[in-house]
Amino acid sequence: MSQALQTRSLLSGNEAIARGAWEAGVTVATGYPGTPSTEILEFASRYKEDIYCEWSPNEKVALEVAAGASLSGARVIVTMKHVGLNVAADPLMTLSYIGTVGGLVVCVADDPGMHSSQNEQDTRHYARLGKIPILEPADSGQARDFILLAMEISERYGTPVILRSTTRVSHSSSAVTLGERTARAASGGFVKDPARFVPIPLYGRPMRTKVEERLNAMKEEVSSSAANVVEWGERSLGIIAEGIAYQYVRELAPQASVLRIGWVWPFPDSLIREFAAGVKKVLVVEELDPILEEHVRSLGIACEGKSVVPAIGELSSDRLASALGGNGNTPTAVRGQAAAVTKAAEAAAEGLPARPPVLCPACPHRGIFYALGKFDVVVTGDIGCYSLGVFPPLRRIDTILCMGAGISMAHGMQKAGEKRKVVGIVGDSTFFHSGITGLLDVAYNQGTSTIIVVDNRTTAMTGHQDHPGTGRTLLGEETITASIEVFGRACGIKNIATVDPYDIKRTVEAIRTAVESDEPWLIVARSPCPLSMKKNPGEPRKVNQELCRKCKLCLRLGCPAIEWVNDEIRVNELLCGGCAMCEKTCKEGAFQAASGACNES
Amino acid sequence: MSREGPVTGIVLVGVGGQGILLATQIAARAALIAGYDVKTNEVHGMAQRGGSVVAQIRYGARVYSPLVPDGSAAVILSLERIEALRFASYLAPEGLAVVSTQAIVPVTVSSGQASYPADAEERLRARFPRLVYVDAVSVGERLCDTRVANVVLLGAMSTALFLPPECWAEAIGQCVKPRFVDINRRAFEEGKALAAAVH
Predict the structure, then answer these.
(1) Residue B82, pLDDT above cutoff 90
(2) What percent of chain A has pLDDT over 70?
(3) Phi and psi at residue B17, to the nearest 5°
(4) Residue A587 sits in a domain of what CATH number?
(5) Average pLDDT over residues A138-164
(6) Chain B window 85-114: which residues touch A at a Cβ cutoff of 8 Å?
(7) Strands A234-242 and A281-285
(8) What is the pTM of this model?
(9) Which DSSP state fits A3?
């Protein structure tokens, strides 16, 4: 490594993973956006001279593409959020049998605390289920280091490896020492070997045995790996901590002996035994499920864990301090101080209006939810910005399950005999991700639900990524534009309408036609996300107070730019995007284009 | 057990879309340039859509957790009037609050479910003995770009931190597009002057 490149940079965990992948000589990177994992691939695409990067339609496809690349000898990463791994679980479980040729690392970002997710499942379970090693960095420096290590492990043992980060690793920045890109010999391409790559039962059974042999072979290395380290301190308490939990532990207990675990599974048994033998009491600190703790107990080692450390939500040094306080191990002083401060602050925060996330001003989704408010229907929703249609005053999302379920659940409710019409909503990216199969089911099995694709021409919630319907790739190339309507027709849906959701009147008419029909309908509500376009649909509006009769109908839009202040309806011109939906809902014509453009430079 | 070493915590709060991330980057970079170990934390995804957002920075000789413990922040910087109250618990008793007078009405208020406190300023003054309450948007307007409001607040905040001035200037140079560097440096100085006048 040259001295010139030994600089320390402040990188987020996600940026560090991308950097590590580049340094490791990765040539292919795939994934599907999902908070908190999204930026890994976005940063990787900055190395596009060296790394081919793509947003795949979904995580399953992304992993399959990665598997193909690996079997051709390339080093490859595939990125997704925790729930994305459910979608990619099918290829992952058997890829474990087939194994890898070029290093393959599945970068999965968990979301303890559910900052931006529908559940807080613990990805470590997948490691055990798939018999795949899993590494878990505690900061950006380790994120970079562990990608390099994971590639090595993957190639040495011929196994996919999971790199698990969490929100507080992916979205925290810390200093990283940068290295150079590893030069790798060009791959000789795919080498035919059916006994290795074709898991028909005849070949699959020996593969199954090999998986166990591989795990056994790994056991010694796990305990001596640089990823798993004992930091000896006072011997009265030994804390076994993994991932980000290590940071909280170290902060609270600088004197304690700590076994820091970065290579989480297979478990470093001999190291755990050695550590436990050197301390009086053992405490296991891990976020979410007691996976490590249960294993420590299975080794015959008495320990505390989830008896004191919360299993629900993310940890912090504060949370850990109050938890450990009850165990007699810690800082009552710290805990007392925190409690006193929190109490004072509660008074300051008392009675503050809640500020939940909302659909942005001029968001085209608002038109659909406003229009749906006029019908007595059940609305099965999906994952995306439009999830926010659940909040008052719109309140027009009744269920959410997972990507694509907005369509399939509508069909299920209708088949179960739901008396009201059922309307399923998915976004454009979600439609391509896993909505098409649901729509095919509606058509094939003669459903009658109305499916609305809210097509804002981007994957908005995760920060505006391209997808098969946008005409552009992650690498910025122009490409085909997949058509939702054509997919609908191909599935066998006869009734297809395309509407502009800003045009509330026609949107209501289209929905009325659809929900009154006894056939399935596909409505495509198409208008680009203004945030993504960096362009508002129109000039800001203002209220002519002489015309306003204060009926507050406009407030039902739930637009952040429309305010009810001092008994007056007002438009916040700084926020207003000029979509004019307020103008269309107002019976008095009180909303007008504000004269005089904003003087912002 | 006790927390190790002096670690300085900064909490930045506001409403999704206000430019908290850039302010966070500049401050973190300034600490890094000053030679400290630095960790930051940000919120992405759903919360960014007009919801309350929090970013955190910690710097010192050695920083473990990226999260600022309750009651320990040296500064809380708020880009919106009442968000400082919502996250007040982060601030140390002797800490400085730098709050923009800008009010952004949440949809819970505009839709009539809740009301925006009319006594926000009184509450801020009661809660924060050391308060810089500043119309940063107007300062931005005067400099011909309201988008630099966050950097005005950074300048005010810098008066409570012990980072050399040249580190801030350098950090702005590294984090902002070249053609915006000058205006941001001026905004920073304006903020510093405002804070000096107040406390």
Answers:
(1) yes
(2) 94
(3) 100, -5
(4) 3.30.70.20
(5) 98
(6) 85-91, 93, 104-114
(7) parallel
(8) 0.94
(9) G
Q: Residue A496 is encoded by which pair of tokens?
A: 């297809």
Q: Give the model's confidence band at B111: pLDDT under 50 very low, under 70 low, under 90 confident, else very high.
A: confident
Instruction: State whether A334 and A213 are in the same domain.
Output: no
Q: Which tokens sit at A558? A: 């739930």
Q: DSSP class of residue A196?
A: H
> Could you report the per-residue pLDDT of A484-505, keeping only the tens digit for each?
999 999 999 999 999 999 999 9
Residue A227: burial class (beta carbons within 10 Å; 0-12, 13-18, 19+): buried
The CATH number assigned to the domain holding A133 equals 3.40.50.970
A360 in any annotated domain: no
Interface of B with A in 49-78 (CB under 8 A): 49-52, 63-67, 69-71
Give chain A's domain count. 4
Are A338 and A387 part of one and the same domain? no
List A455's β-bridge partners, or say none.
A526
CA A280 to chain centre: 40
The reply to whether A356 falls in a domain is no
Summary count for chain A: helices (H), strands (E): 22, 22
Residues A551, A575, single domain; the answer is: yes
Output DSSP code: residue A596.
S
A456 touches A430 (CB < 8 A): no
* Number of residues written out for chain A: 601
Q: Which tokens sit at A346?
A: 């509660």
To probe the interface with B, which of A35, A251, A343 has the most B CB atoms within 10 Å?
A: A251
Rounded to the nearest angstrom, the gap between the alpha carbon of residue B25 and the centroid of all alpha carbons in its chain is 11
Q: Are A500 and A527 in contact (CB under 8 A)?
A: yes
pLDDT for the residue A595: 65
Nearest beta carbon to residue B65 from set A115, A248, A461: A248
Are A76 and A216 found together in one domain?
yes
Which single residue is written with the structure tokens 């703790």? A293
Beta bridge partners of B99: B78, B133
Q: What is the pLDDT of residues B181-196, one digit of tens each?
A: 999 999 999 999 999 8
Report the C-alpha gap between A50 and A488 in whole angstroms. Answer: 38
Note whether A360 contacts B: Cβ–Cβ < 8 A: yes
Verify that A22 and A53 share a domain, yes or no: yes
Q: Both A40 and A187 in a single domain?
A: yes
| Mutation site for A-interface testing, chosen from B22, B33, B46, B83 by largest number of A Cβ within 10 Å | B46
Which of A329, A334, A353 is facing B115, going by the closest CB pair? A353
Interface contact flag, A168 B50, Cβ < 8 Å:
no
Domain that includes residue A246, residue range: 228-345
DSSP A433: I
What is the ipTM metric for this complex?
A: 0.93
Question: Other C-beta atoms within 10 Å of A390: how many?
Answer: 17
| Helix (H), strand (E) at residue A185 | none
Phi, then psi, of B78 in degrees rounded to 5: -125, 125
- In the predicted model, what is the mean pLDDT of residues B101-127? 90
CA neighbor of A92 nearest in space, from A132, A122, A53: A132
CB A362 within 8 A of CB A579: yes
Reported as a single tens digit per residue, the pLDDT across A366-401 is: 999 999 999 999 999 999 999 999 998 999 999 999
CATH 3.30.420.310 fits B7-103+118-198, yes or no: no
Q: If you measure CA to CA, which chain B residue comes closest to A563?
A: B110
List, as ranges, residues 114-173 from B with C-beta within 8 Å of A. 114-117, 123, 126-127, 144-147
